[in-house]
Design goal:
heterodimer; A: mainly alpha; 78% helix; 0% strand; B: 215 residues; alpha/beta; two-stranded antiparallel ribbon; 7 helices; globular
Chain lengths: 116, 215
């Protein structure tokens, strides 16, 4: 059996760059397709699919990549750590809301980063 | 078709150097590698005058290799393949294009390619078809390797791989090491200066003529 939580955590520990976004998206999708409760991994898949779309053809400065990672990774990592030991539906929903809210606030930040 | 001249190649190098490079910072590339410069080939390739010249230069390589179709991974390859097609028409030849998608569509049996329809109503990318893979840049070679993998799975024979620019990371060597006929027009050093591949100059006509770029 694959340890999707651990594999995703390992990818999130890496720096943020387009190929890593694509790899995380692929893994999250695979996890969503093989889980009884696919919603959390569907959320992670969507987040990184959109990041890949937004940044693959755009210059990504190292400081922006670092800022993006600092902004987006913590709620996902918190969810993955908590989910490994089991979560109530309510607690899972809270984690997912935090991930989505953080992603939406990143999109606001991203809009203000000049396209070079 | 008028043969590509050395002057054309110098002019193309100058246009690409001027249009495609961004300096002054530390960039994280798609592959995760770090770089002092950022290269965006589309800033030049999408200009009709530059595209026309690129088409003519790459067409020569395509004809030498005997490729019947030109394409590669989206989106870098698309304007190049179209430019080669346009140059082919100028020379009285039709060279159809194809696109390899980064992600397969979720339907159909040929879900990872979009291809021109050959006259005979068959698929373009079929067993034994000689194809050229093109891209605007090669860094680690990942995009080109993906395109090769997809077209070879459809039975095609990759007779040529062309990158407009080989970045200083040297991804072209990996393609050569796998036995492919890899050609580049230009290459960079670590500072992002663009140099002409000598082999390209050897194949160009000596005669100077009026430049074709209209910037």
């Amino acid at each position: 059996m694959r340890h999707f939580y651990t594999e995703l955590q390992r990818l999130l520990e890496r720096e943020f760059y387009a190929d890593n976004f694509a790899e995380i998206a692929r893994l999250a999708r695979e996890a969503a397709e093989s889980m009884d409760r696919p919603l959390p991994f569907f959320v992670v898949w969507t987040v990184f699919l959109l990041l890949d779309r937004d940044w693959r053809e755009r210059p990504l400065r190292m400081e922006v990549a670092d800022r993006m990672k600092r902004h987006l990774s913590p709620p996902i990592e918190r969810y993955l750590r908590a989910a490994e030991s089991g979560l109530s539906p309510e607690s899972e929903a809270e984690h997912l809301n935090e991930i989505v809210e953080r992603f939406l606030s990143w999109l606001q930040i991203q809009r203000d980063i000049p396209w070079e | 078709m008028t043969r590509v001249t050395r002057q054309d190649i110098y002019e193309l190098r100058d246009a690409m150097q001027g249009l495609c490079f961004q300096y002054g910072g530390d960039f994280t590339l798609s592959s995760g590698l770090k770089s002092k410069y950022y290269y965006n080939g589309k800033r030049a390739v999408l200009r009709p005058g530059v595209a026309r010249l690129i088409g003519r230069v790459v067409l020569q390589l395509v004809e030498e290799a005997g490729a019947e179709a030109v394409g590669g991974l989206e989106i870098g390859s698309i304007p190049i393949a179209q430019a080669v097609g346009a140059a082919g028409l100028e020379a009285g030849r039709e060279i159809p294009a194809f696109i390899v998608r980064k992600e397969a569509k979720q339907h159909g049996d040929r879900e990872q390619v979009a291809e021109a329809a050959p006259d005979q109503g068959e698929h373009l990318l079929t067993s034994g078809r000689k194809v050229a893979i093109v891209d605007d840049v090669i860094t680690t070679g990942g995009s080109i390797e993906k395109a090769i993998e997809v077209v070879e799975a459809l039975g095609c024979q990759v007779v040529l791989v062309v990158a407009l620019v080989e970045r200083h990371e040297g991804g072209g060597q990996g393609i050569r090491d796998r036995g492919y006929n890899f050609r580049r027009l230009f290459y960079t050093n670590e500072e992002g200066h663009l140099f002409i591949d000598e082999a390209l100059l050897h194949g160009a006509a000596e005669t100077a003529r009026e430049g074709v770029l209209r910037r």
